[in-house]
Amino acid sequence: MAGIRPELNTNHLSAVLIHLTILVAGLTMAKGRADAAEVLVDRVLGTVNGQPFLYSDVSTKVENGPLVTVSEYPATEQAPPFERATQDVVNLLLIKQKAKELDLDVTDEELEAEITEFLASKGLDKKGLEGFLARQNKTYEEYRQDFRNQLILGRFQRRVIAPLIKVTDKDLETAYIKRSGSSSDLVEIILRQISIQIPEGAGSVISEAKRSLAREARGKIEAGVPFVDAVKLYSDDRQKAANGGLMEGVHLKDLTPVIRKEIERLDVGGVTPPIEIGSTILIFKIEDRKISLGKDMQRKKAELESELRSAELSNQTRRWLSEQRQRSKIDIIVK
Q: Do residues 59 and 86 lie in contact, with contact meaning Cβ atoms separated by under 8 Å?
C-alpha cells in the first residue's frame, strides 16, 4: 500500500536510504591545508516496491520538464508541481517494473537506433540536438533517459492497456454531437403531410370552411382514422396523397419556426394541430426521428476515434495505476 511517513526504517533499507554525498576539497588559508567538507547533493526520496528514487529525479522534472510523463494520479492538475512530479515518478516506476516483468525493456542499442531514426525524421543530428538541449538546460543523458521512458511507456500501453480500449459507433456519435454544440441541429425527421389550400381571394366564409375542414381532419385522426387515409380524404396535394403524404427527410433546424415549434414537442407518431401559413393549412405526422450525422461525421470519424482512444488510453492507464498502487508498497519520505 502507498504511504507517506516522516522517515523510513533505516535498519530495513539501510543500503538504499543513505544520503548521497561528495567531498569537496577546500583550502584553509589559516591552516595551510585542505579540509574535506561534506556537501549534500542528493537523497533518496522514496521507494516503490523496494526500488529507490531520488530527490533529483523529481526536482529535475519540476525544473526542466517534462513535469508529467505518465500521470500525476492520485494528485490532480491543481496540485503543487513537486507533488505532481513525485506521483508521476512513482507511476513511471510501477510501469517500468511491470514492463521488465513482461520483457518490454529497451536495450541501449534499441534506444540509440530509435533516437537516430527520430532525429533523421526531423532533419537533425546529435550535435544539433545537444545544442538544443544545452539551451534547455538538459544533458544528452537526461534526454536519453526521457526517450527510453517514452519507449517503455509506449510498449507497456500497447501490450497492457490498448486491449482494454473499446470505442463504439455510439461513442463516436455522442462525441460528434457534443462537438457540434447542439443535437437538435442534427435531428432529421420524416413527416407525412395533409395540405389544405385556401383559394386565392377567397372570402371569409370559404376560408373558415377550409379551416373547419382541417379541424375535422385532425379530429378524425384523433378518433383513430389512419393518417394515410386522412390524407386521401382531405389533402389537396393529390401527388403526395398517392403515397400517404410522405415527405423526404428534413433537418429539424431547417423547418420554419412556426412548424418547428409544433414538431419539437411531439414524439414519433405524434400529429400537429392545423398550422396555417399564408393560404395553406398543414397537418403533420412525425413518421420517424433520428440523428443524421451525414458526410461531415464520416470526414471527422478518424479524428474523433483518435481523440476518444487517446482519452480512453489515459483513463485505462489511471485505472491500472490505481489497482497497481493497491498491490504495491510505496514509501515517500517527507522531511
A: no
Please report, rounded to a whole number, the percentage of residues in the chain having pLDDT higher than 90: 61
Residue with cell 432529421: 188
Q: Helix H segments across the chain?
A: 55-64, 81-101, 108-121, 126-135, 140-156, 169-180, 204-222, 227-234, 238-241, 257-264, 294-327
Taking the C-alpha atoms of residue 18 and residue 14, their distance in angstroms, rounded to an integer, is 7
Q: How would you class 259 by CB atoms within 10 Å of its CB: exposed for 0-12, middle for 13-18, buried for 19 or more?
A: middle
Predicted local confidence at residue 35, as pLDDT: 45
- Burial (Cβ within 10 Å: 0-12, 13-18, ≥19) of residue 19: exposed
Residues 6+ apart with CB under 8 A from 250: 188, 189, 191
Q: Which fold has domain 180-291?
A: Chitinase A; domain 3 (3.10.50)
Task: Write down the pTM of the prediction.
Answer: 0.59
For the cut 80, the answer to whether the pLDDT of residue 202 exceeds it is yes
**How far is residue 281's CA from residue 258's CA, in Å, rounded to a whole number?**
12
Sign, CA torsion 311/317/322/325: negative
What is the spatial order of strands in the sheet that 280-291 belongs to?
Answer: 250-251, 187-197, 280-291, 275-277
